[in-house]
Amino acid sequence: MDIYRVYYFSLVVQGCISLGLAAWLWAKAPHQSGIKPLALFCVGIGCWALGQLGMHLGDAGVAALGKRLVNCGPMNAVFFLHFVFRFLQRERGRQLLGAYALGIAVLLLVQVLDMGTLAPWLGFERYYFFPLWGSIPGVIVTAISVWAYLLLLAAWPGAAPKQRGKIMAIWFAGVWGSGASLMFLNASLGIDIFPYSVILLPGYALLLVFGILRYDLMVVNLWANRLLAWLVLTAVTVALASLLLSVAARTGFAPLAAMPLWQLWLLGTAMLGVMLVLEGPSRRAIEALVFPGAHLEAGVLADWRVRLDGASSWRELEAIAAATLGAHLRQPLQVVLGDARPAGDGKPGLHCYLAAGKAGEAPHWRTDLMEWEGATPGVTRVGEVFGALLAAAAARLDQLLRYAEHEKERLHQAHLLELGGLAATVAHELRNPLNIISMAAVMSPPETRADIRAQIERADHLIQDLLTYSGEVRLNPQRVAVADLVRRVAAGHPQQAIELDADPALCLYIDPMRGEQILGNLIGNAMAMLRGRANPRILVDAEAQAGGQVLLRVCDNGPGVPADLAPGLFQPFTTRRPGGTGLGLAIVRRLVEAHGGSVRLGERAGWNCCFELLLPGMP
C-alpha cells in the first residue's frame, strides 16, 4: 500500500475524530470541569490536520488556506493550559489572561508575516518548511505547553488516586502526541526521512479525552468498548486475509485481480464467517475489560445483601453501598441517601430516597440511577439490582432506627414512672422523720440547730428534685418576654448581679413557671460555682434563630466544667459542685425537651462556662 495514501488517510481520520470529539464534548459533557477548553483544543488539532491535508492535496488557493490553519497552532497550547487550570481547579485569571494575550500575539505574528513556505519534499508535492525565525514562536508555544505539564506534575503528590490516574493519562497522551508530531519537522531540519510518526496522531485526541473522562462518564467507556472490539476484529481480519492470500499464492492462484469470481466469493465468505464467529467473544472479552462486573451470580447477591444489612446508620450504609458497588464495577461511584435529589456532577452513582406513594399507598424506599447514560444493558441491570437491594436495606434500617428510638423513649418513660413511684415513697418516708428531727432540735444550741436545719433543707431539696425529675411534665405555654423572665429569676438572687443582653421585644412561647425553673437552675448552678471567687459575673443573652426558635445562653466566669464530666453532664446524679444533688441539669434538659427544644454545653469567648438552650419563640 502507498505510504503517502496512508499518511493522507491518517490526516483525514485525525481531523474527523478531533472535530467530532470537540462537538461531543461541547454538547454532552458541559458540566465537567475544563471541558470547553479541551473541546477548543480538539478543534485546534482537527484544524491542524485538515490544514495539512489542504496543503498536500489542494490547489494553490486551498494550500494557502491550509497553511493558515497550520499556523493557528500556537493557540492550541493556550487552550491546553486553560484546560489544565480548570482541571486542577486553580483560578489564576491574570496568568491565564496573560497566556491568551501571548498566544494571540504569536498567532497574529505568524499570520501577518505568513510564516512558513510550501515546497516539494520527498514524494510530497507541497510540504511545510519552517523559516529560521520560526523557532521564536516555537519556543514560546513549547514554554506554554511545558508550563501546563509542570503544573500537572506539581499536583501529582497531593492528588487523590482517581485524579492521579487522570494526570498520568494526560501525560501519556502528551508523550504520544509529541512523539507522533516530532517527525513533522524533518523537512525543516534537513532530515530526508518520511514522517512515519505523524500517522499515529489520530490516537492522540482519543487517548487524551478517554483518560480524562474514563472515571466520570460511562458513555466514554461504552465507546472505548466498541472501539477496542472493532480494532481487535480488524487486526484479526487483516491477519487472516494475509494468511489466506499467502496460502492462495503458494497453491498456484493467480494474483488477486485475476482470481475467479467464485474464489473471491469464497475468500470473502470465509472472512465474514470468521468475523461473525469472533465478534461475540471479542465483544464480551473487551466488555469484561472495560465494564468489569457486568454479570451477576447468586453468591454476589447474597454477599451484597449481608453487607448492606450490616449497616447501623445512614452514613455507614452510604459508605458500604458505594464501596461494594464500586469494587464490583471497578469504578468510583457515589451513593446518596436522602429526600432531595443531588445536583448532577457527572459522576455515576445511586440516589436512594423515601418516595411518596400513590393515592392510598404508604411511602416506600426506591433507588434511581444517576449519570448512567451510555452504560451497557448488563451494567445498567447490575445497577438496578443493587439499587433494589439498597432500597430494601434502607427500608429495614429506617424501620430499625424508628423502633430503636421508640424503644428508647418507652424505656425512658418506664424508668421515669418507676423512679416517680420510688421518689414519692422516699419523699413520704423521709419527710416524717425529718419533721421529727426538726422539732427535736428546737431545744438544741443555736449553732447545732442551724446545722441541723441546713441539712434538713438540703435533704428536702433533694426530695423535691427527685419528684420534679420523675414526675409528669405538664405545660401551659404562653408569651413570655425574655427580659421579664430574667428579671423575675434575678429577683430571687439579689446578692448576684446578672447581666442581660437581649432585645426587650424578644419573646418565648413557653410555660412561665417551667421557664423560671429552667433559668433558676442554671443561674443557681452558676452562683454556686462562683462562690468565693473575685469579680463573679453571670450573663444571660438571647437572640432569634431561623425557624422561629430563640437561642438563650447562660454564661459565667467560674472554673468551667471538667472535661471528664462534660459527656454526661445532663445525666441524673452528675454534678460539678460540692453539695449538689446532681439533678439540676437533668431537670433542665427534661423541661427544655418537653418544650420541643434542646440544651447543650457551648462555648463563648471570654466565659469559662456557657449553656446554650434552643427554645420555641412566638409562633
Automatic annotation (TrEMBL):
**What Pfam families does UniProt report for this protein, alphabetically?**
HATPase_c, HisKA
Concerning SUPFAM superfamilies, the annotation shows:
ATPase domain of HSP90 chaperone/DNA topoisomerase II/histidine kinase, Homodimeric domain of signal transducing histidine kinase
Q: Which reaction does it catalyse?
A: ATP + protein L-histidine = ADP + protein N-phospho-L-histidine
Listed GO molecular functions? phosphorelay sensor kinase activity
What is the main EC category here?
transferase
The protein's matches in Gene3D superfamilies, at most eight in alphabetical order, are given as:
1.10.287.130, Histidine kinase-like ATPase, C-terminal domain (3.30.565.10)
> Histidine kinase domain spans which residues?
425-619
Spans through the membrane: 6-26, 38-56, 100-122, 128-156, 168-187, 193-215, 227-249, 261-278
Ordered alphabetically, the record's keywords are: Kinase, Membrane, Phosphoprotein, Transferase, Transmembrane, Transmembrane helix
The record's InterPro entries line, in alphabetical order, gives: HATPase_C_sf, HATPase_dom, His_kinase_dom, HisK_dim/P_dom, HisK_dim/P_sf, Sig_transdc_His_kin-like_C
Q: What is its EC number?
A: 2.7.13.3
Q: What is this protein called?
A: histidine kinase
Q: Which organism is it from?
A: Massilia atriviolacea
